[in-house]
Amino acid sequence: MEFNVKKLASDAGVFFSRAMQFTEEKLGQAEKTELDAHFENLLARADCTKNWTEKILRQTEVLLQPNPSARVEEFLYEKLDRKVPSRVTNGELLAQYMTEAANDFGPGTPYGKTLIKVGETQRRLGAAEREFIRSASISFLTPLRNFLEGDWRTISKERRILQNRRLDLDACKARLKKAKAAEAKAALWSDEVEKAEHELRLTQTEFDRQAEVTRLLLEGISSTHVNHLRCLHEFVESQTNYYAQCYQFMLDLQKQLGGFSGTFVGNAESASPAAATSSPAVAAATLPAVPTIPVVPTIVGVPNTVAEGVLNPNEVKPPASGTRRARVLYDYEAADSTELALLADEMITVYSLPGMDPDWLIGERGNQKGKVPVTYLELLS
Predict the structure, then answer these.
(1) Each residue of 182-238: pLDDT tens digit?
(2) Of 120, 184, 223, 306, which residue is most buried, by most CB within 10 angstroms?
(3) Are 345 and 328 in contact (CB under 8 A)?
(4) In what order do the strands lie in the sheet with 324-328?
(5) 3-state helix, strand, coil in the chain (%, to 5)
(6) pTM for this structure?
(7) Sequence-separated (6 or more) residues with CB below 8 Å from residue 215
(8) In DSSP terms, which residues pair with 302 in a beta bridge?
(9) H or E stretch including 161?
């Protein structure tokens, strides 16, 4: 019990001495041992690494999981050292809804068939997203998190110890300075000088030892950068594979839906106006065609001559009825003389021609006429 009381008293004395030294330094009333420039650079580099690693980690987590509630749930499971339950991705949930809707509408109808095909692709996209998240978490997020929760905590602990050793050293220097000043006035203080010099030697040794330990840890930041660079390459590779898969899935879906185009256009033309959709591509299919232009069939592997620009739009007359007004969403630069250049927010008149690519329409602005991309337009009723 007596030993514990003495230890507590000693610790309190050390804490008070450090607090006094720190306060006097802040007030400019005490000298401070400065670290060399190389050491200061190491400290600044370590702090910069820590700050940017935190930001990159947090934003990557947002990229992989935009839902904040889901991120909090995953964080709690991780802290409790429990496995995160499997979560359905948005693509997989959309696929489920599309499949169920197709069954209600009739899987044999054009709309039902299309819902099933799109749903299958959404399921594949969702599975690819799940694999990308898993791969990115292992190869990129985990190493960043391990640095912050492991190496950085060790560095921070040793830096705090170094700070305390420096405060002890500067306090001993101050006591020695006072003892020497008193010795000059009275010889009775010679013992105090000797004691202060002994304490200074001890604290200097401890400070130098701790500075070397901290320096080695800070120099290890270079290895951290090398490791994070390797992880970044793996993250990019995972992301590249993910987007390549998504692109291929969508190409396959586009080819499959191309086989439904004939049925789709026929249904769209017979549908009532109330059932018309606001989608630009679908709206293009529902526009009335000019009867005087022969239909050019689309053959797989052979470009559509109308869509490819053989037709001279200036020779085409608009239909007597059925033209629509459209607002331009983005600027568009015409690729050749058969296309019409567009400016954002301007209004033009559009209509479709038989055999045209559904992604294109004929647009008119005053005396100017040419093909325009549907995706650049907002079709108005």
Answers:
(1) 766 665 556 778 888 888 899 999 999 999 999 999 999 999 999 999 999 999 999
(2) 306
(3) yes
(4) 368-373, 360-365, 347-351, 324-328, 377-379
(5) 65, 10, 25
(6) 0.59
(7) 39, 42
(8) 299
(9) helix 152-183
